[in-house]
Amino acid sequence: MTDKTTSSDLTKAPDLDATPIGITTPAGGEATEARSLASDAWRELRQRPLFWVSLAIIAVFVLMAIFPQLFTRLDPTDADLAKGSDPPSFTWNGAWFGYDLQGYDIYARTIYGARASILVGVFATILTSLLGVLIGTFAAYAGGWVDSLMMRVTDIFFAIPFLLGGILFMTTFANDANTGYFVIVGKVVLVLAILGWPSIARLMRGSVLQVKPNDYVQAARALGASPWRIIRSHILPNAMAPVLIVSMINLGAYISAEASLSFLGIGLTPPAISWGVAISDSLVYIRTAPHMLIFPSIFLSLTVLGFIMLGDVVRDAFDPKTR
Amino acid sequence: MTTTTQSRADAKAAAAHAAYQPVDGRLLDVENLHVHFHTSDGVAKAINGVSFHLDQGESLAILGESGSGKSVTAQAIMGILDVPPAKIPEGHIRYCGQDLLAMPEEQRRKTRGPEISMIFQDALSSLNPVFPVGWQIAEMFREHRGLNKSDALAQAVRLMERVSIPGAKARVKAYPHQFSGGMRQRIMIAMAIALDPAILIADEPTTALDVTVQAQIMSLLQELQQERKMGLILITHDLGVVADVADRIAVMYAGRLIETADVYTGYANPAHPYTKGLLDSLPRLDQKGQTLAAIPGLPPNLLKMPPGCAFHPRCPLARERCREERPELVEVRPGRFAACHYTEEVLHA
Amino acid sequence: MGKYIVRRLLLMIPVVVGATFLIYAMVFAMPGDPLAGRCGERPCNPAFAAKFRADHNLNDPLPIQYAKYLGNLAQGDLGETFQQVKVADELQQRYPITTRLAIIAILFELFIGVLAGVLSGIRRGKFIDNLVLVSTLIVIAIPTFVIGSLAQYAFGLKLGWFPVTVSPQATWFELLLPGMVLGAISLAYVARLTRTNLVENLRADYVRTATAKGLSRARTVGVHTLRNSLIPVVTFVGADFGGLLGGAIITERIFNIRGVGGYIFQSIHSRDGVAVVGAVTVLVIVFLFMNLIVDLLYGVLDPRISHD
Hints:
The complex is a heterotrimer of chains A (about 325), B (about 350) and C (about 300). With about 325 residues, chain A is mainly alpha-helical. Chain A has helices at about 5-10, 30-45, 50-65, 105-140, 145-160, 160-170, 180-210, 215-220, 225-240, 240-265, 275-285, 290-320. In chain A, helix 4 (about 105-140) packs across helix 10 (about 240-265) and helix 7 packs across helix 9. By secondary structure, chain B is an alpha/beta fold. Chain B has 14 helices and twelve strands. Chain B has helices spanning about 5-20, 70-80, 105-110, 125, 135-145, 150-160, 170, 180-195, 210-230, 240-245, 265-270, 275-280, 320-325, 345-349; strands at about 25-40, 40-55, 60-65, 85-95, 100, 115-120, 200-205, 230-235, 250-255, 255-260, 330-335, 335-340. In chain B, the strands form two sheets. In chain B, strands 6-7-8-3-9-10-12-11 form an eight-stranded mixed beta sheet, with helices on both faces. Chain C is built from twelve helices and no strands. Chain C has helices spanning about 1-30, 45-55, 60-75, 85-120, 125-140, 145-160, 175-200, 205-210, 215-255, 260-270, 275-300, 305. Chain C is flat. The interface of B and C includes residues 109, 112, 144, 177 and 178 of B.
């Protein structure tokens, strides 16, 4: 008899009566399910060209942030006023991106600008994720009035739009010429974290609330596991996926926000080299020296695109419904 | 609603129905219907050559487990399969002698509602959550009959009263979520019978309801069918529901019809082991205390159909022949058909 | 519905109080000199400093400071800059321009965004779908100020289709390009959101019912599916309004528009802290009210919400 083989096949019989397309969303939660979901997602990702493209873009810019010397021999702080706002020259030794008004080499400035953007993006993401995960998990796990209170606080922070809050903060704690590089970067990271944690906290709370009622969590609790252990080994591993994906997209958004603040003159300020500042400076000379605008714009947009695209592709792979 | 608009609506209705006249009382002829679903795992053959017919005023119950293809059959007749992934490679569905599958889409669309209509299992999700129920019923009159808003709404109230919704006039502007399950199904029914269709397809109309409400809905359906001389196709897996309402039963398994019979003989003396299994799994008062006989195993995977008779892995009578040769649906007694090599054994058991 | 409105209003009170307190704390109550960065490049002159302290009750205990600040805010008193200009008067003159700009942006993002989303959703997997998905991703990745600067260069300077900068009158036509720039990123989100919801809703049972009712495809998609799919889009536009106001600051700076955003940028530049804080606070409050309106609209669009 072929009974055994047939019956194992039978369990997979598509229930055509219910939904002809038959997309079953995994109940989500069980560790084995999560793993197979992850490996499914990975198989899906490997076949997506956008995944590799975004990874490559990110790799290039991270490398540029760490070792700008690999990309240019020039010192971005070398200025030659005589060359002020010279257009690009495509000779072997020429300045391919041209010079800005003070005679800085735009190529070198643009390369060195990656560092601030990547630094701000990475640290703001780490900080917001830490805060958000901590607060969201705590609120969801504690429940009751603690949860309500924390969610009201989240609402309040959420009520202040990103850029507006950033402007308020950075106006109050303005930089001056003596402020050091890391203090400038630190301030921007801090303000992004202050304004950015609520969205992660909400997401994390929702995700923990979904995992919490699962049998294995209840079983661990019944067996007397400590809250810390339950959170660490049962809840976090199963509730982190959405936060990780959104954090990746947010990284791009933080870079964009930093550049916007810098563009308005209150994010990064000299001596920090920033694409936002460079673009802001270029606007005045847009008629005479458009090359000052184009190159930093392209670099900035590509960096943001890299992270957002990666997050987007990964999310699609984890959530088959959106396809 | 004034009498003039009423008669105008009736005249329009009569004109609309005139295009389709049953031939010798025959409403629907399904002939050798095949439906395939193209999925990433392969082609699922949901229906493989199904033929049956429906006469005026007749009620036919199509029985089967989930995955047997009964709902897909209903959706194919209604023309609401998603194409792709669904595909109808072969077959005819003739309504009043005209092949629905060969019709231009626009012409076919106009049969949905006035000629053939359908009610679904879950009325809550099948009604649009953001429009008032009266609006949703009135839409039938506005789109198919061109009635204005107030006339259409008056018709909606009339229908809601007909299906016994208490306080219909007051509740015509209420939303689906404000009704109970039974009331929602009544609204679905009101919408389906709005344009006096010749055929009503009810796809598991009572599965989502409480037992007491189930009986009310079934008797309402029966009442309406007799009042309007509709042909009723009742899709269900619940044999209890069928007995009172249906004239004939058609049993489906793995995308094929395996038995058709009138309801009395079919129940009293099934001709196919699967039908017999279904009947034996019904709890009966006269056999209280005995264990219920469930059919072992599960319906087959449509992507990987077993050779021979699709039912053989679960059949108590299965022999070598059943694994190799698929039995055709043949007339085993006058007016009854079955697809089994050993019908006689089943009939005489 | 009445109950729903009351409940929403009650829920909003703690958020408004909390948000203004947060702003207040960030601006006035943090350690450090509250006068830093309020008088341009030079330190404030003693007369202004004394007036500033008195105006903002900086010598009172914190809760009283905040209460008095809220009182002033409620009366529309946003303080006076060191050049003795009332912030409220300045905003009064400028808000119509920013309103016009925001209207253009929202109309643009809704019309084009929903259209692109619907086209993409009903042709899922086809060329137009991929085109919309890729192009919206690119638009989302480009910060507003880059889009604005490039648009000004391309459409204003090179092609000459639009004025490069906006005159003090700020006519609707002059605000067209800035408005489209302002709405561009939100447009991309609206398109994607519409698409996702449409695709999901097209699988819903009630769409199958609509088809079974013999409705045309256009009506099934355009009335039955779209109405449901637009509910989250409306929520998004409300939540995104804050981003739009931030974007207005950037857009007005690029196109030299004399609206509220342009005022904030100028004030940032001249380090006029009183003006920045006053104007931004007003924008935050406008955002909160806009959210309330959208919340109420949500109740109208989705009957399941308001009747509960």
